Amino acid sequence: MYKYDSYDQQMVDTRVEEFRDQVERRIAGKLTEDQFKPLRLMNGLYLQLHAYMLRVAIPYGTLNGKQMRMLAHIARKYDRDYAHFTTRQNIQYNWIKLAETPDLLADLASVEMHAIQTSGNCIRNISSDQYAGAAADEVTDPRPYAELLRQWSSFHPEFSFLPRKFKFAVIASDEDRAAMRLHDIGIQIVRNGDGEIGARFYAGGGMGRTPMIAPLIRDFVPIGELVSYAEAILRVYNRYGRRDNKYKARIKILVHEMGAEEFIKEVEAEFTHLQGQNIDAPAAELERIIAHFEDPAFETGLSDEIDRSDPDFAIWLDQNVHAHKRPGYAIATISLKPVGGIPGDASSAQMDLMADLTEQYSFDECRVTHSQNIVLPHVRKADLYSLWQKLDEAGLASPNLDLISDIIACPGLDYCSLANARSIPVAQKIAKRFADIDRQKELGELKLKISGCINACGHHHAGHIGILGVDRKGTENYQLLLGGSGAEDVSLAKITGPGFTEDGIVDAIETVTDVYVAAREDGERFVDTYRRLGMDPFKEALYG
Amino acid sequence: MKILTGNDLKSGDVVWWTGYNWSRHVSDAIEVGDTVDQIIAREIAARTVNDCYTVDAERTDTGILPVHIKEKVRATGPTVRPDLKIAPPDPAAGNWVI
After folding, report:
1. pLDDT of A315-340, one tens digit each?
2. Domain A6-109 sits in CATH 3.30.450.20
3. Do B78 and A99 touch (CB under 8 A)?
4. Is the pTM value of this prediction over 0.80?
5. 26-45 in B: which are within 8 Å (CB) of A?
6. Quick check: helix, strand or coil at residue A510?
7. Which end of chain B is more exposed for a tag (fewer CB within 10 A), N or C?
8. Whole-complex ipTM
9. C-alpha angle with apex A529: A528 to A535, nearest 5 degrees?
10. A311-393, what's its fold?
């Protein structure tokens, strides 16, 4: 994985000391809150419902053991012994004290991490496929290209004050595990007919109050021009994106209102204009970055045999373990969704354990997923049983990946000042209702996603089943949506009809899954049955 | 009735105006009258709190409580972490919004 060079380290260290000075001046009264607020937000420090909240960037979701252990240390020393992994592969701390933040950031910087550009109208943390570098279906590891874009976009002066925040996702396989087309820019690394690596660009996707699927902008950009093409898109957005209304300021609105065809013309003209301006990194720099992502020292001649005699282990194996590109290895997902737990939350002790397991079993690499789980990407199949035993002891072995209890949930009204309704208690109740693992497996792949407000941090538009919490005359109410997907079969979920109470929405989930079970054909997932039948039978069952 | 709230500058804690100081317990809040703007200006100038605003509240058997659920959660802590809830004098406070 990428290691900071002296420039990277100096940039981060300098920012820590700059922020230390800003905090001191704020506490001393030399800065007003109006002056200080944009400075703290540029360092990821929000004022949330209960306290300051710090969002820490995890570039493309990749961590080593030392970094994960530092995240645990921060939870223990500066917070309340836990933290929350987010739907953009980041981590959030909910109870941070302003005066301690500079020391916290210095601790983070000591392991090559920071909270820069995790807020504000800039290019945010770049997300990627959690199976990158391990999946058999990828063209190449997408992370070097995400890293190149990270370096280009960090402190980019032209793009530090965009009309609105801006999110990239970079993948390199046809299977989309990163909700790529629901980002402002989605990039799929591909090979052309001549076997050359390049980038397929999508732009103008997003969730929020106006969900859009990003249209294709260009089928193939030579990889050496990746940055200049991204720059062309950002320039067109920066020039024409609306700044008069924050609800219409995202690039998706621009692409929609301008029309994809006209938008592409503008981008291509800008791209032509940028030719010869040496915006792209020299090939040697890209090679330097790629070298950081070389495969670890995989052993050869390993057996693919796994002893499945422990039935509980076999269930976990079938659900949470994914095929690896190399014989004898597997990708293991650690579920942060125990039944009745808080999706994405981990205690410092659990993070310490995951750090140990990362070092012991996965060549010192783990990944945060946008589904709020943790992946160990390179585990020897022979080690899976002992790994599972350690996870099981720590309550981290729920065998529910992609099942109904593997719920994405935003922090909701329990933590977020923007939320209108609580998400977590609904997730907990649904997980408890469907706690029986045999029942979950019988339902098959079912992606359930809950947001506590229209900003859609819980990706409800992309759920096979989505839930949106709203405020109805001061009372929490929950709208039900069906038919969304953030995967390669991307689609936006549709609202079934009138909303439900907190208990009513749990019953409603059971109702629609009952319709699915009764109507499904062989091999159909919930979303497949919905697409075949449409909304009517579900609506009929829900509302009569 | 209206009560005044904000966040402590250094800790970020939710605090409530008691008439002469700030308390972490909403049960200590008092109704603020016409002088609220003066209180806010003075307290912000003193660098004690951020983001001051008034919220609708009501007197209940267990004391003063915000009316809206968001402010109730804000006053008492996350409903999903009873171990982190602020413990006001009312022993039943944990049931306010759950």
Report:
1. 999 999 999 999 999 999 999 999 99
2. no
3. no
4. yes
5. 44
6. helix
7. C
8. 0.91
9. 110
10. Alpha-Beta Plaits (3.30.70)
